[in-house]
Design a protein that fits this description.
The protein has one domain: L-arginine/glycine Amidinotransferase, Chain A (5-stranded Propeller), CATH 3.75.10. The chain has ten helices and 16 strands. The longest helix is centred in the N-terminal third of the chain and has 14 residues.
């Protein structure tokens, strides 16, 4: 890959700002916004010690609640947004410094499952606020569906990106061509399925993340009752077979909301920013081990574990609700 011009920086590159979402649609949160807002407020306060945080606000009521909770820690920006999932609805910013450009892909509500007013306008609105020129694409792509290592490798899943509910008009080769042209990547590495009951159809940011060039992190089952035991094993085998350096941390195990139905809790849904890694934690025992192992994998960064069950009620976690702006 020597000489390849890289357009999309890895998440550990310096950030000028970090965007986060703020919940506003009570129906998307079982009628109660308070738990998610509490988790997100704690995240914003922690992140703001390391990077300027901007919060996407989609209503007057949301603005009032965000002002009370995080007004002193972040810039609150009123713009069109359905809900908090900026990783998927926001722009993917390529380049650095004066070469930065907002790649604006089509968004169709995760395959038409969750259609919320404002979500298709969020990427362009964030780009405008940042003063970044937008480049529009025909491809349906969510940011949580890809991960890059800064040296030309891109990781994704067949379950999501080849799903008939995303881009049925494009073949795999055509999708790969779009990714290479838009993001400056070279090697497209395909995994199979994501976590059980993942609303996103298997986003890769819930199962495997690059933590250095050619070095990828995934999860091993926390215990024999882990609902994703088979999937996690297949992910690790696929990454090893792809010739990558592979590290693992424990999953959160069997997480549910009292009904016995597993939800897609994952320690992989962390956000990397300047000097810090903010990690969702769920079950005390497994999360403590995951945090300790992450500290060894991210020398020079503060690894911060924060409660995330409130956000998980909406289907995602910290990485899903954030979007970095490269410096």
């Amino acid at each position: 890959m020597t000489g390849l011009k890289i357009n999309l920086a890895p998440e550990w590159a310096p950030h000028a700002a970090l965007w986060a979402g703020w919940p506003r649609l009570a129906d998307e949160w079982g009628g109660d916004l308070a738990p998610a807002r509490a988790d997100i407020a704690a995240f914003i306060h922690a992140a703001s010690a390391h990077v300027p945080v901007r919060v996407a606000i989609g209503s007057d009521e949301a603005m009032a609640s965000a002002l009370a909770a995080v007004g002193g820690a972040a810039e609150l920006v009123r713009l069109p947004t359905g809900d908090i999932w900026l990783r998927d609805t926001g722009p993917i910013v390529t380049g650095q410094g004066a070469t930065r450009q907002a790649q604006v892909f089509r968004f169709n509500g995760w395959g038409g499952k969750y259609l919320m007013d404002g979500d298709t306008e969020t990427a362009a609105a964030v780009a405008a606020h940042e003063g970044l020129p937008p480049r529009l694409h025909d491809l349906v792509l969510e940011g949580g569906g890809i991960d890059v290592d800064g040296e030309g490798r891109l990781l994704t899943t067949r379950q999501c990106l080849l799903n008939a509910n995303r881009n049925p008009q494009f073949s795999q080769d055509q999708i790969e061509g779009h990714l290479r042209a838009a993001l400056g990547v070279e090697d497209i590495l395909w995994l199979g399925d994501g976590l059980a009951n993942d609303h996103t159809d298997g986003h890769v940011d819930n199962i495997a993340r690059f933590i250095a060039p050619g070095h990828v992190l995934c999860q091993h089952p926390a215990n024999p009752d882990d609902p994703n035991t088979d999937v996690l094993g297949e992910i690790e085998r696929s990454l090893v077979a792809a010739g990558l350096m592979v590290s693992t941390i424990p999953s959160p195990g069997f997480v549910h909301f009292g009904d016995g139905v597993p939800v897609p809790a994952s320690h992989m849904n962390f956000t990397i920013t300047n000097g810090a890694v903010l990690v969702p934690v769920y079950e005390e025992r497994y999360s403590a081990v995951a945090l300790a192992e992450l500290k060894a994998l991210f020398p020079g960064r503060q690894v911060i574990g924060l409660p995330a069950r409130g956000i998980l009620a909406g289907g995602g976690s910290f990485h899903c609700m954030t979007r970095e702006i490269p410096a």
